[in-house]
Amino acid sequence: MKDLNLKSKIGNRKPFLVPENYFEEFAAQWDAEGIKKTPTIKLQRKKFWYVAAAVFFGFLVAGQVLYSSYKQSLENLNENYELYLYSQLDRGTIYDYYEISED
Amino acid sequence: MNFTEEEILTQLHNKDSCGNAFNKVVRAYQEQLYWHIRKMVLTHDDANDLLQNTFLKAWKNLDSFRGDSKLRTWLYTIATNETLTFLTQQKKRDTESLSAHEDYLIQQLESDSFFDGNAAELELQKAILQLPEKQRIVFNMKYFDNMKYEDMELILGTSVGALKASYHHAVKKIEAMILKIQQ
Prior knowledge:
The complex is a heterodimer of chains A (about 100) and B (about 180).
Chain A: H1 4-10, H2 22-31, H3 38-88, H4 91-102
Chain B: H1 5-12, H2 18-41, H3 44-60, H4 71-94, H5 98-111, H6 119-129, H7 133-143, H8 149-156, H9 160-182
């Protein structure tokens, strides 16, 4: 054997320690229901709620933006229509209108 | 180990019994896998993390394990790959040169409260650290565990002849390094 010297001089003991009851506790972790399954399941559940929340807030923001731009365009339309009406009238027509209304 | 390979495989591929069967697998192989990893990464904390990752990976990939190799061989292969990936990342992250990385590992070993070696064993560990990682694995598996070359071939995917040569060179290098230190 080529390593006879090495083994006889130093030996082949593993010079490391582990914390007390380490292997018992390690195995018990895996015995605890769910610990081996949870990493994937938890991630999937978390992912679902993250996606659901993102979609909800996305709709909320998009709705808000769409509604405010719709409201703005309605206001603009009314304003333009009023301006258009006034532009079609001359002063005499307006006076006639008020006189008729008072009668 | 109180199960046969066939029995445990059937249980692992059954939806109702796979959880319990996997617990049996953890209990049966945790200790030998831990020591396989620990001899490479040296510190307990790293070995613990890598052992967890090894079993997690095995659990997630149970469907792909069809029993073409032995369960033990499959687990050892996962543990070896996890360990080598970890060491590569650690080398990139912590240090820039190879010798600095070895120095870092030696410092870690010397200050580790879970290192229980005498002066000669510390010298041996220092010499082992000078070997390339794959040669370190071969040396550790043969020297400390006296694993058969045929089993190592299946785990490491290297021929028996190449493994024998690698081990022989490793022993020679280590003996030379220890002699150099002692002079």
